[in-house]
Amino acid sequence: MSTPIPPGPAGREVKLAYPIPKISKTTLINTSALLRFTILTVISAAAIASRLFAVVRHESIIHEFDPWFNYRASKVLVNEGFYEFWNWFDPTAWYPLGRVVGGTIYPGLMVTSGIIYNVLHYLNFPVDIRNVCVMLAPAFAGLTAWATYLFTCEMADESTGLLAAAFMGIVPGYISRSVAGSYDNEAIAIFLLMFTFYLWIRAAKTGSAFYSTLSAIFYGWMVAAWGGYVFITNMVPLHVFVLVLMGRFSNRIYTAYSSWYVIGTLASMQVPFVGFLPVRTSEHMAALGVFGLLQLVAFVGIVRRLVPDKQFQSLLKTFVVLAFTVALAVLVLLTTSGWIAPWTGRFYSLWDTGYAKIHIPIIASVSEHQPTAWPSFFFDLEMLIFLFPAGVFLCFRELRDEHLFIIIYAVLSSYFAGVMVRLMLVITPVVCVSAAMAFSTLLKTYMDPVVPSIDMDTDRDSVIIDEKGEKKTPRAYAEKVKASKPGIYGLDTRLAVLTPLVCSLVMFVYHCTWVTSNAYSSPSVVLASRNADGSPAVIDDFRSAYKWLRENTEEDAVIASWWDYGYQIAGFSNRTTLVDNSEYGVTHIATVGKIMATDEATAYPILRKHDVDYLLVIFGGLIGYSGDDINKFLWMVRISQGIWPDEIQEPNYFTPRGEYKMDASASPTMKNSLMYKMSYYRFPDLFGGGQAVDRVRQQVIPNTPIELNVIEEAFTSENWIVRIFAVKKEDDIGRGLPESTAFAKGTKLKKSKSAKVGGAKKKGSQKA
Amino acid sequence: MRLPTLLSLPLLSLATLVVEAFPKSYQNDAISRSVELGGSVTTVTSTITARSIADQPGDYVLPLAGKTGKVPIAWEVSVNRNKLGQIATSIDPETGAQVVYIPANLTQKDQLASIILTEYLAYQSKPLPEIIGQDEAQYLQFSSETTFPETAYHTKKMTIKYRAPRKIVSHSKTPNSYLPSESTSKPYKLAGSSLNLGPFHNVPASIKTVGFKQSPLTIHYDTSEPVLAIKTLQRFAEVGMWGGNLNMEDKITLFNAGPKLRGFFSRLDFQSARFRPTFPAQILREITYPIPEGASSPYYYDSIGNISTSHFRPSSRAGLPAILEIQPRFPLLGGWSFEFTVGWDLNLGSWMKTVGGDKKMLAVPFMTGLKGVVVDEAELIVTLPEGAKNVEVVAPFPVAAVEHSVHKTYLDSTGRPRITIKKALASESNEQNIYITYTYPFYASLQKPAVVTLASLTFFAIYWIVKRLDMRIASASVVKTKTE
């Protein structure tokens, strides 16, 4: 906090609360520049280091689900070249439909890591693409800290910028999406968001076409990288709109916005997945409208200069009404005629949190789309969430153009962060910036050594006449002023405020590190646990099963699993999947839901029609892994009920008392469902006659053996988390599968002896 | 006649010499052969007591395989307990058998020489039945076309012994020729896990005698260990001159070559098998992989990441190798395969020495042999430091190919010489050092720091220039007046 000490008025001695060393001005400037650079470097280093918990504890591995797809796509990009990637059709996803990957993803992430990979390889650094992907998020987090510094410097001063950068570097709300291995779009998007905003503010402040072009280019990159670009698309026009409404329209704004919109929109249209959306969907109409508005306002400005005042008033009125009506009419017309797509369901779910639950269960089934719980604000932002409103208030006090930006950003993102857990990420930067402003103001006020001085230039013995005409000695006057004028006089006051502030900063760092270490650094494919002696152990069931699929099944085998595991199966096992995490076809997902939710006889034709070779379920009952498929089962039921309301009904899966139970009281539909059978197949046998307790649900599983006719157990991982079942082919001699299974077991031999013997002979001859 | 320096002679002239060098100058007093059954490698050890029956008998002709027998993937010979180095094999033009010429160093008549031949045969045992359930016993069937050891000389007495890891269940008819007529005992003796044939008397020279009848033999036996094979083994060795480090990395595709698993794997049965007296033989849970003494920082991973289920045991005593206990991600059942990579660091000083001036000599073990495991495709890839020249490779056994290439890695400018040595069908007997000599002048070690220094200086210079360039369209004074 190297604020230069303001010299006293007219070179008079300033009273200081504590001595400060005398340093020349040049030294001060140079030192503070060096300090800033060093501090910023250290902040970036800290931002990177605190994201490496997972790498240090486990290994350099891609986390969770979506990153696995991004990683796989990056591998295609670097191994097969850009054009192959751009035109990539993936026949192994969404079997048998396949997926046109090049046109259905935001390629910015993969292209970014592809460029880094190629540059490194060109310089003879043969870094593995996996390591590039794993380290991309921490590296960009370092850059985000720097972008936040620049952004905040535009709002306040450098010391605030450093504080904001430090907050941004370690705040859990951002770390949650950018730890090493979390190779997702958000990994680079937040840097792009902050940098675009910084460049925009810069452009709006200076009216420089150069900065707004740069801003547009970074916006284009952002569009290529993350669907959340719509936030910028609406944020910037809104800023401009509010400025215009407040009568702050200027040529600077005009230049900045016009160049930003034109270049940015063109840039965004280069992304195949976005294409013509910027001119055809409602989400983008605000930007277009503001662009039009600016032209009108500028035009009116010119007219005003040329036309006398009186005519101008009436002209303006007619013009405004006309322009508004025409624009609205065109918008409505285009929307109804289908040229402009109305709001999407996903967008509605932002306004009405109950919307998705009723209309789009797929979106509602994702945990990160749930509304944010209050404690998670504190969990992710700690003290910043309290300082945040103070910072926004400080913006109101000064209210320059750029401060309006913070205010709008704060209001919008507060709403969105409340609607969806995932959008917590969007609020984090503005919280850091405005909290830094508040904190920095506090620190500056209380660290400033200058003691408020009373006007003492009169002689010691001269008499001062105050407002009431009373005569007073200076000393007495000073006493009175001191009593009435608020200010910070002693060292004790300063320490009394600064000490808790510093303490809270330290607490903040502790909290951030703790949260990062405990909540956000688990790769989720590898589960950490402890041995009986307390030594750390790793539960590696997922990879063990995926590796088994990769090595010991046919290369064209089709695996059916709930969509959560689609990307992982493709990435780890390189096998064809029915559905994956791209939420591409609801019917397909519902089909898998139906397979899991119905009995064997109903499921078998569906399985055969889709050429399914293996079924994969996640079962946590043995070791108490609660994220298993039985706990997700109701969503499968709901989603398939949406497509086949006659065949699947959610209430059938509850006990008569309306409980979701797996024990003896479970409903027959539940017990016959493939999901139940696969999860608990031979599970009670493991307990050797004792009570088979499902540790996730704390229920006793009945001991009656589960019979599988159309599928057979193929692989179960060490802790039974992943269970893979093979789908049987149709019987060679046309018997039903239940009969042939029974025959193989020898249980029904007596029933019709002659027929079975004949059958066996036939089978034998066929083999020969 | 005598061939004093066989090794130096070209093969062609050798072959022409051979035709006449096949006199009856030896006879075998006794041959005792012992065959170790089990796994994908069968080890055959023949102890031959040779007697010269003429003065200056010359080289002893030792056939490795007859016309019908299988050629061993590797073999070793020792004469009077002295192990011989590499000897070229040649095809006997008369009989078509593959033979080697052993310098027995006998000068007079009636001298004795003890020759021990150890042969390694690949995939001589096949699983029977070919498909078994998870908990069933694993049986293998050994089959051989040649029961009698091939020899070029008359043999007075022959005994053959087969040893299986467990019980021998059955065997085919054993040969009944060359048995002493007065013998009333059975021509074989079967006791649990071993089968003894013979003794056979006055067996003629098999590869020389027209119409000599070899008798085929099959042995069906029980096993206690999984049958393992390695489909591909790639060993990377990289020399780091600056760090004094030799990094070794083995990329292995392990395959369970035993009977295939019927149906699928049941975890429950696998977990409960632990409580039974015998664990199913076909299931591989863990392999112990010996790595050289003094190895440090070992690692173990596969295509999808680090494998946490392994232990490293440093060598407990000088002279003993360190041990990597490797547990695959899943138990390996019949027909299953598992691909993984292990690596470790070695102190370069113990593996490389300077042999005069700039010349260095590096020893790299070609592979790590696992007992009874065949490697279908073995490859050793050695990367020498940047700037190494005049690379020469000496292999102690015949290899399929030696290729030279250039490899570029961290901070390289001109690249490092790389040598690829390939061999098909390798076994534990190929666990021998490959010697590589190269020259590495002192200035070569300075290449890397020089390049790095130059690159950083260039970067700073460019930055310095760019920082001082005025890239504004208007000159500074114009901009200033405009803003004012």
UniProtKB/TrEMBL annotation, chain A:
InterPro entries for this protein: Oligo_trans_STT3, STT3-PglB_core, STT3_N
Region of interest called Disordered, as start-end residue ranges on this chain: 745-768
Regions of compositional bias (Basic residues) in chain numbering: 747-768
Ranges of residues in domain Oligosaccharyl transferase STT3 N-terminal: 36-435
Keyword Glycosyltransferase recorded: yes
EC category: transferase
Nucleus found in the keyword field: no
Family the entry assigns: Belongs to the STT3 family.
The protein, known as: dolichyl-diphosphooligosaccharide--protein glycotransferase
Source organism per UniProt: Filobasidium floriforme
Lineage: Eukaryota, Fungi, Dikarya, Basidiomycota, Agaricomycotina
UniProtKB/TrEMBL annotation, chain B:
Highest taxon in the source lineage: Eukaryota
InterPro entries (UniProt xref): Ribophorin_I
Membrane spanning stretches: 449-466
GO biological process, one term: protein N-linked glycosylation via asparagine
Keywords, in A-Z order: Endoplasmic reticulum, Membrane, Signal, Transmembrane, Transmembrane helix
Cleavable signal peptide: 1-21
Keyword Cell membrane listed: no
Locations listed in the record: Endoplasmic reticulum membrane
Membrane topology type: Single-pass type I membrane protein
GO cellular component, one term: oligosaccharyltransferase complex
Coiled-coil residue spans: none
Pathway info: Protein modification; protein glycosylation
Keyword Membrane: yes
Cited Pfam families: Ribophorin_I
Family: Belongs to the OST1 family.
PANTHER family, alphabetized: DOLICHYL-DIPHOSPHOOLIGOSACCHARIDE--PROTEIN GLYCOSYLTRANSFERASE SUBUNIT 1, RIBOPHORIN I
Known function: Subunit of the oligosaccharyl transferase (OST) complex that catalyzes the initial transfer of a defined glycan (Glc(3)Man(9)GlcNAc(2) in eukaryotes) from the lipid carrier dolichol-pyrophosphate to an asparagine residue within an Asn-X-Ser/Thr consensus motif in nascent polypeptide chains, the first step in protein N-glycosylation. N-glycosylation occurs cotranslationally and the complex associates with the Sec61 complex at the channel-forming translocon complex that mediates protein translocation across the endoplasmic reticulum (ER). All subunits are required for a maximal enzyme activity.
Assembly and interaction partners: Component of the oligosaccharyltransferase (OST) complex.
Protein name according to UniProt: Dolichyl-diphosphooligosaccharide--protein glycosyltransferase subunit 1
